[in-house]
Specification:
alpha/beta; binds adenine
């Protein structure tokens, strides 16, 4: 049974597809393209999540219902919520929060109605494996995967991989005041994106293990969109490719 690999960026998909072993199958459905095959010996279905909570939740549901994936692993980029995180660092999601969920006064702020919880935990074992894979990628593979000039351009000096909470919602953070407000409400959050917690909820409801790894692309402030497309092409796609190679190749050994 395959693992569902969701990527939040088309640039990551393009890079991963070059690794998909010959004989892969393509299915188009609901404006999404599902690629079934093998990545470094592991059976996978790779798909672009599309952006935002609804899009990503729909893609995750399709992976579970139509492609019978046994788990979902999500890659992509995120904005740094904590000041200690820098562009080029990696966050492996520990707990996933929906920062825009607010059904007050029916439920406390951030609580997901009918589920009695405000966050979802990722699969602990896979999360630890991803953290190890990310750390090994940064330690041993980065100089080859991302050129010195690109690393210099994005000021990536000694990047680190951490386990941390991620908050998702239908909002791109581009103002430091919004980031500060988020941290007042959800102080454990390390990074922000627009999809992970929605997919975590789908996986929770279907009892499918979920993990997520995100490369920090910006500081979730006024500079957030600066060089964003270039970062996706030259850095983020190399990161997710390298981390998955480490994860699947090393676990096959
Ligand atoms: N993904 C990458 N950067 C982000 C940001 N600043 N806000 C939300 N999602 C993001």
């Amino acid at each position: 049974m395959p693992i569902g690999i969701m990527a939040a960026m088309q640039e990551e998909i393009d890079r991963l597809l070059k690794e998909l072993a010959a004989g892969s199958e393509v299915v188009n459905d609901g404006r999404r393209t599902y690629h079934s095959g093998h990545l470094w010996g592991t059976p996978v279905v790779i798909v672009f999540s599309r952006w935002g909570k609804v899009a990503a939740a729909t893609t995750a549901t399709d992976l579970i219902s139509d492609f019978c994936v046994t788990e979902i692993l999500f890659t992509g980029v995120a904005g740094a919520a904590q000041p200690g995180l820098k562009v080029g660092d990696i966050v492996v999601g520990a707990r996933l929060w929906q920062h825009d969920m607010d059904a007050r006064p029916l439920f406390p702020r951030h609580e997901i109605p009918l589920l009695g919880r405000s966050s979802f935990a990722s699969d602990e074992k896979r999360c630890d494996q991803l953290l190890q894979a990310a750390a090994a990628f940064l330690r041993d593979d980065l100089p080859k995967a991302v050129s010195e000039s690109t690393r210099a351009a994005f000021n990536i000096q000694s990047p680190k991989a951490i386990k941390g909470d991620i908050a998702s919602g239908d909002k791109f953070f581009a103002h430091r005041a919004d980031r500060a407000d988020l941290l007042l409400r959800l102080p454990t959050v390390a990074a922000v994106d627009m999809e992970s917690a929605a997919v975590a909820q789908v996986c929770h409801e279907y009892s499918v293990p979920f993990t997520v790894v995100r490369t920090i692309s910006d500081a979730a402030d006024e500079s957030a969109t600066h060089d964003f497309p270039l970062f996706l092409r030259q850095v983020a796609s190399a990161y997710s490719h390298g981390i998955l190679e480490r994860l699947f190749d090393d676990s096959a050994r």
